[in-house]
Amino acid sequence: MSEAPKDPGLLGKVAAPLELTELQETAWIEVIQKVDEVYSDLIRYEVELERKNTELEEAHGFIANILSSMSEILIVCDPQRRIQNVNAACLQLTGLGERDLVGKPIGEIVSEADQPRIQRLCVGQSGSAVDYVEVRFRTAGGGTSDPVSLNSSTLIDHDNRPAGVVLIGRPMGELRRAYRELNDAHSSLKRAQQQLVQSEKMASLGRLVAGVAHELNNPISFIYGNAHSLESYRQKLVMYLEAIHEGVDEDKLAQLRQRLRIDHILGDLAPLVEGTREGAARVSDIVKSLRRLSFTGKEQPEAFDLVRVLKTAAQWSSRGSGRRRVDLELDLPEEMTVTGHDGQIHQVVVNLIENALDAVEGSDTPRVSLSGQTRDGEAVVTLRDNGPGIPDSDLMRIFDPFFTTKSVGEGTGLGLWISYGIVKDHGGTLKAVNRESGAEFTFTLPLAQNLSISAHLT
Q: Residue 427: which pLDDT band, with cuts at 50, 70 and 90?
């Protein structure tokens, strides 16, 4: 018995619905996936938005803290000059609350007399323009505040367009008090500086007087001794002349002449007079040198022999009292002619020698040498000592005013600073270096034929 054939049409009718269901399932899966992706993006965007909101709140809080901490008064106005924001300093000054100020025209919170000023301050400002006016603000009690110095600048928005004006100010009472304190401090500093400069001058004068006293002592002692001898000779000559006038006989007169040593006196008178004249001339030269040292700054610069100044300064500065005698070794040419004030250069040399002598005070074999030479159109003077030298940390500071390594009361720190300025004004240089045994100071001055420095010194 044969099997009946299958109906292909029925099979086709069953397969079609199955294929449609699979397509629908695939579509729903894709929709669900898209929904998940969109939801994930929404979650991510929300997290990012929360983070940015947090940062924005922190930024607002930071700005608010800055504004509240400002001691200056801050007022922000819109283009219509209405107040948009104020800080705590403004509220404290006026005694008003933020609600009382925000939204009001700026002119309503200042005194009536100052309204034109505040209006001008809020008009015509550029982003970089700054102007200052003094205004008085109305206060909660109906009065006015102390004057406030205000400046203004234009508020710029994110599109770089004017969006209002920013006013910043400080009460004039605080400014005046600060200026007074600053002026008092400046005056005190000037007085202290003048006292220190005067102390340095007096110290230099004391060292100079000690040397000059020793220098004057020799010729004055010589003159005094000669005057004593001349007085003794005068008395003997008077006795001899009286005997002649009394008619004493020749034998007694000869005996008196021999006893009074009249012949020796007559032969010694000329050397005594000449020696006295030389001593007086020496005193005169010293006094002239002192007069040259008392320069006023108004004298015209003149050509002078630097070697003479170096020798005089070396003699006078090395003979002060209270210090162990140190012989200066001099190695100087016959002459070096420079232009300027010899008194000022004398002061420089004395300061340098005094520092060198102080440096070798504790040395077993103290040695200080002063040498000079001409080189490349300049006079070069070098002072060396065998002291401990200058600490490397101090080399760059020794010419600064008021810097000293000496104990309190022993130095003002102005000697080298003054010396540096004098040499610079003369068109020269002053430098300091350390050598293997001690320190070395070198200053240079242009020779007279190479430079006219009247413009620097007058």
A: very high
d(CA 149, CA 365): 69
Q: What Rg, from alpha-carbon coordinates, does the chain have?
A: 49
Task: Using DSSP bridges, classify how beta strands 132-135 and 328-331 pair: parallel, antiparallel or unpaired.
Answer: unpaired
Residue 357: closest CA among 369, 373, 371: 369
The answer to whether residues 424 and 440 touch, using CB atoms and an 8 Å cutoff, is: no
Beta strand ranges found along 21-61 (DSSP E)? none
> Residue 420 corresponds to which tokens in the numbers above?
């540096």
Contact 170, 93 (CB under 8 A): no
C-beta separation of 321 from 207 below 8 A: no
CATH topology identical between 68-175 and 297-457: no
Structure-token pair, residue 284:
């005169």
C-beta pairs of 311-317 under 8 Å, 24+ apart in sequence: 312/346, 313/346, 313/349, 313/350, 313/353, 314/349, 314/353, 314/370, 315/211, 315/215, 316/208, 316/211, 316/212, 316/214, 316/215, 316/350, 317/207, 317/208, 317/211, 317/349, 317/350, 317/353, 317/354, 317/357
Domain ranges of the chain: 68-175, 297-457
SS3 for 263? helix
Unique residue bearing structure tokens 């406030």:
148
What residue has token string 């005068």?
A: 234
**CATH code reported for the domain at 68-175:** 3.30.450.20
Stretch 341-346: mean pLDDT? 84
What is the SS3 assignment for 409? coil
Question: Which CATH number among 3.90.1010.10, 3.40.50.1010, 3.30.565.10, 3.40.120.10 corresponds to the domain 297-457?
Answer: 3.30.565.10
What average pLDDT does the chain have?
Answer: 79
> What is the Cα–Cα distance from 44 to 161, expressed in whole angstroms?
35
Find residue 429's DSSP bridge partners.
444
Q: For residues 429 and 40, which has the higher predicted lDDT (pLDDT)?
A: 429
Contact 148, 170 (CB under 8 A): yes
pTM above 0.90, yes or no: no
